[in-house]
C-alpha cells in the first residue's frame, strides 16, 4: 500500500521536458495567449521569442486555414486625400465548418499614428500581407508595417521622394519573403520624373525602385535596379519570392508584359500579360491563389469572368475557370463592379465584389455558380468604427505570427 502511494506521488511530480512544453504544446497556441505566456518568467519570454519557436509557430500557422483581415477606411468624396489619426485591424476567423467564417468580427488592434507624423495616415491605403506582417502603402511616401496579433505598428523611414505623389497612385509598396536569405522585404517604386509630353504624345518619366529589409541593421531603404517600364495602378502581387508589378497604361507603346521583381536577386524580368489584360481596370485584378499568380478579367459578354493562371515556367497563361453568376445573381450588377479573388478552398474561390456596397462570394471553380457569403456593409458590425462616411473595407487573407518588426528573428 505504501509503495503504491509513493508511486502515485512520484508520478504527480513528473515534469515535461522543456522542448515538449514549448515546441509541441505552447507553439500551437494563438498569439494572444503566447503574449500572456511571456509574462510567466524571463526564461519563458526568451524561449517564445527565440527564432526556432517563432519559425515553428509561423509554419504551423501557414498550414492552417486563413482568416480575413479587414481594414476599414473612409473614402467618401474629399476623403481620399485626407488623413486620419489612427488605423484599425479587424479579424474574421474561419468557422467550424469548411468554407465558413465566424459570425462575429473581432477587433485585433487599433493603432494611433506615431506622434512624429503630424498629418496622420492617409485614408487612401493599400495593404499587402506576408506571414502575419501587413505592409500599408499610403497616399504619401510613407509606408507602415504592422503585426496586428502582437500589436506592433511601425512607420518605416521615408524612402526616396516621389515627384508624382499628388496623383495619388498607390499601391506603391508590397511585402514578400526572400526565401534564399530568409528575410522579409518591402519593395517600393517611386518616380523621379513623370509627365505627359504634349509634343510627342507620350509619357515622359524616370522611375526608381528600392527595398527595405527586416533584420537589416541599417534600418533604411536601399536602391535596386530601375524598373524596365513605368508602373501603373495594377495591384502588386507577391507569390513565392517575386513581386509582380503592372505597367502604366499611359506608356506608349504599351508593353505586352508584366514586370517581375526577384526578392532574391533584386532584379526585374518580364512575363507576358494574360489574355485581355487591362492595366487600370477596376474590375480586373491580379491575385495570389495558393501560391499561383492568377488574373481575372471580364469577358466580352460583360457578365462572366475568366480566371487565368500563370504556368510554373512563367511564360504561359492557362485558363483556370470561368465564373458565371447568371443563374445565381443579378449578373448586370455583379458584372459591372470590382471582382477581387482572395483565396481558394475546396474547389471554391472566395471573391470580394464592390460597387456601392461590398460583398464576399464563394465562386465554384467547376460549375461557375456564385453564392453570397457576407454583405460587409450590412452583416458585420465593426465595433468602435465610425463609418458615418462612405467606408471601404480592405481585405487580405491573413495568418497570424509572432514575427517582430523591430527584432526580426527568422
TrEMBL record:
NCBIfam families: F_box_assoc_1
Membrane-spanning ranges: none
Gene3D superfamilies noted in UniProt: 1.20.1280.50
UniProt organism field: Hordeum vulgare subsp. vulgare (Domesticated barley)
Chain ranges of the F-box associated beta-propeller type domain: 126-315
Pfam families according to UniProt: F-box, FBA_3
Record protein name field: F-box domain-containing protein
Name of the gene: LOC123428329
Residues annotated as domain F-box: 16-52
Lineage, opening ranks: Eukaryota, Viridiplantae, Streptophyta, Embryophyta, Tracheophyta
